[in-house]
Amino acid sequence: MSDSPSESANPKPPRRKRYQGTHPKRFEEKYKELAPDKYPDEVAKVRAAGRTPAGTHVPVMLREVLAALKPQPGEVVLDCTLGYGGHTAALAKTGARVIATDLDAAELARTTERLKSAGLSVSTHHTNFAGIGNVLAAEGLAGVDCLLADLGISSMQLDDPQRGFGFKRDAPLDMRMDATRGITAAQLIAETDEEALAGLLRELGDEPRAEAIAAAIKQGCPTRTGELVNIVLRAYGLKSYKKRSARDQHPAARVFQALRMAVNRETANLDHLLRTLPYLLNAGGRVAFITFHSGEEKRVHDALLEGFKQGLYTAIEIDGVRPSSDEIYNNPRARSAKLLIATKA
User: pLDDT (tens digit, 9 = 90+) per residue, 297-313?
Assistant: First the structure.
């Protein structure tokens, strides 16, 4: 017997796969958080609990960034770290011409479409800091009036287990921003000797037990995030770890941060940006860096201070503006952020 005309014309959508328990736990099961426009009340509830909704990112120190850069209609603004587009969207709403870059091709495409759907005009490019000069040449520009570099990782990358950036779920130990190039975190571990690995954990992760953890990592040679988490927990004398609140930091957070920065050559790319920064800014141009780690902060601090001594910058704020206590409470991932600012002569 064939279906009736009404049934074939209006087929029922497939049923959503059920999850275990009363609340979704896996990233892909959080369908309400992954559709924030469709379920704003759910997103608000997650934010009120001090968590970031799955698949989204809350821009850090947005108010302070806008106050530092002071973008004006007709000026050119370069956002070197597009991410989820929170900073970029706010900059575009000022009437400035906004250009944005990002190394993560997948998130770049999604954010570009999201900004376009919101009616915001932003020119986006897939590149890292080293390619910014080529981006400006392609845009027909010699320099920009405002430049923003948010050096943190986006929540979308942390929360998606398949990217291998986070420690909430077991997944291949990848951590590449651009999955088409470079080596994975597992390969980096295999190719780095114990002493160098310990130095990497100290420099890029501020890890106090760098030597012990490096030795344990080399002995275990993890290829999955779960294996690495267990190694770090054992080094801290723990069998497991349960966060008391969304604002607690997991013992493995510093190790994962250090490996991510090494895999994506973040310090080398940052050094390149700092060297070329005076040539990227127009006269009177403003720059803002958001750092999340002492190594990043020192690099930015020293470069801006040296530029100020040389007369390249007329004003600098290098002690680091901190996010408000309210912002840290509402967005725990902002807790280690610092904003460093300079104005070109």
Answer: 999 999 999 999 999 99
Write the CB contacts of 167 (distance below 8 Å, at least 6 apart in sequence). Answer: 225, 228, 229, 250, 252, 253, 256
Average pLDDT over residues 132-147: 97
| 137 phi and psi angles, rounded to 5 deg | -60, -40
Q: Which two tokens stand for residue 129?
A: 């800091």
Mean pLDDT computed over 42-64: 67
Q: What is the rounded CA–CA span in Å between residue 88 and residue 99?
A: 8
Give pLDDT, residue 179.
Answer: 86
* Cα distance from N-terminal residue to C-terminal residue, the chain: 80
Which domains are delineated in the chain?
81-155+285-344 (3.40.50.150), 173-263 (1.10.150.170)
Q: Buried b / exposed e across 226-239, counting CB within 10 Å, b at 16+? A: eebbbbbbebeeee
Which residues share a beta bridge with 316? 342
Quickly count: other Cβ atoms within 10 Å of residue 25's Cβ: 11
pTM: 0.81
